[in-house]
């Protein structure tokens, strides 16, 4: 039998948490998402709808999106592209300097 843990014991993760994360609406245009990442040096943004968290977009997600838009014949994961469309963050078809500015992780 495992001992019952005291319910008053907890771990404080505040020193490692982002207290003010950047959030965007699920309708936020992908061109603007790319600009945010480029200008602010972001690693991720939280995606919300009516104040509820839907998910997050990472720097790698943006790079994958740009590769899919700029190089449609490449072997980009189709499931990922469908997830982006479900969030209503649709590509504009324009090239971006994001890849040149930031490279990959």
UniProtKB/TrEMBL annotation:
Give me the segments passing through the membrane. none
Q: What is this protein called?
A: 2938_t:CDS:1
Which keywords label this protein?
Answer: CBS domain, Ion transport, Transport
Q: What is the residue range of the signal peptide feature? A: none
Q: Which organism is it from?
A: Acaulospora morrowiae
GO CC terms for this protein? early endosome; Golgi apparatus; plasma membrane
Q: Which domain of life is it from?
A: Eukaryota
InterPro entries referenced in this protein's UniProt entry, alphabetically: CBS_dom, CBS_dom_sf
**Pfam families assigned:** CBS
Indicate the segments forming the CBS domain, all copies.
Answer: 17-75
Q: Which SUPFAM superfamilies match?
A: CBS-domain pair
- The answer to whether keyword Transport applies is yes
A GO term, aspect molecular function: voltage-gated chloride channel activity
Specify the taxonomic lineage: Eukaryota, Fungi, Fungi incertae sedis, Mucoromycota, Glomeromycotina
**PANTHER family named in the record:** CHLORIDE CHANNEL PROTEIN
């Amino acid at each position: 039998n495992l001992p019952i843990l005291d319910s008053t014991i907890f771990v404080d993760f505040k020193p490692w948490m982002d207290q003010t994360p950047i959030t965007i609406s699920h309708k936020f245009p992908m061109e603007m998402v790319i600009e945010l990442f480029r200008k602010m040096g972001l690693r991720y943004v939280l995606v919300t709808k009516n104040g509820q968290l839907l998910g997050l977009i990472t720097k790698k997600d943006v790079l994958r999106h740009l590769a899919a838009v700029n190089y449609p014949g490449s072997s980009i994961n189709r499931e990922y592209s469908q997830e982006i469309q479900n969030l209503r963050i649709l590509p504009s078809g324009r090239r971006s300097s994001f890849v040149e500015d930031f490279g990959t992780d």
